[in-house]
Design brief:
Blueprint lengths: L3 H15 L12 H10 L5 H14 L3 H5 L3 H7 L7 H16 L8 H5 L6 H10 L10 H10 L12 H10 L5 H14 L18 H4 L19 H14 L6 H5 L5 H14 L3 E2 L5 E2 L1
Antiparallel strand pairs: 1-2
Helix pairs in contact: 1-11, 2-3, 2-8, 5-6, 9-11, 13-15
The protein binds a DNA duplex (11 and 11 nucleotides) through helix 2, helix 3, helix 6, helix 8 and helix 9.
EC number: 3.2.2.31
Protein name: Adenine DNA glycosylase
Cofactor: [4Fe-4S] cluster
Length: about 290
Amino acid sequence: MIEPKLLHLPILEWYENNARDLPWRTPDRTPWGVLVSEIMLQQTPVARVLPVWHEWMARWPTPKALAAEPSGEAVRAWGRLGYPRRALRLHACATAITERHGGEVPSDHATLLALPGIGEYTAAAVAGFAFGGRHAILDTNVRRVFARAVRAEEYPPTATSAAERHLAEALLPELGAPRWGVAVMELGALVCTARAPRCEGCPIAGVCAWRLAGKPPHAGPARKGQTYAGTDRQCRGRLLAVLRAAHGPVPKAALDAVWEDAVQRERALDGLVADGLAQVLEDGTYCL
DNA sequence: TATACGTGGCT
DNA sequence: TAGCCAAGTAT
């Protein structure tokens, strides 16, 4: 096990000088702003989140404000961030916060975890970044940095392992855990990237086990790629784009026009309705 | 544990 | 250019 200080000091100093100025990190950030950013950032790059996050904060500065509007408005305002179920869950989250927590984002990890759309990572991130709680942050960036620096492997395992959690816990500093977490994330996002890592600019290059081992390429089987073209997901995306663009009920013909395969199209549309992302009105038209 | 779930930029 | 990849969660 590497001496934690050998990682802490260089990474924290690097973060001090290289952190991006992101609006959810400013001193005047709110827990709600942090929560919204974390949900939006799930599987979505910062650059695409930025403008939408600003729109949401201006329109819904509090959980109560979002909860006061129909969930369809959240889905529409989600725009093209992808995985629109997150918008639905964020709306449900705002409703739960309003009804169960007096409109205040909870600071406790377990309480956060019980909210819709919030899993292990997001609960730790909100508890840490918004409230200073001491929790291990274990997202894809942190997992990659640790895999390389400590385990000498190019990529972490497909699923988060107990060993990874133990390592993250072991490296957690007594003081300043949130800053440590965000610093490692930032290092993974800007330097220790998945492809073409910039080891020249890495503050821990001198102690990185993977680099010292000669950067051996990933051994195991190739990681399963995400197919998209022709899938139900693509079909759902097409259908939802039509509903988002329209500000009134949409005749079914308008949906039929964007996907050839009728069987797949019906299945996708039923799925959207079942998920609560789309609604069927009495006259057979559709809306968010 | 494996799978479903959007979207678009980058190499 | 086709695939890889991005601050995951729910089932």
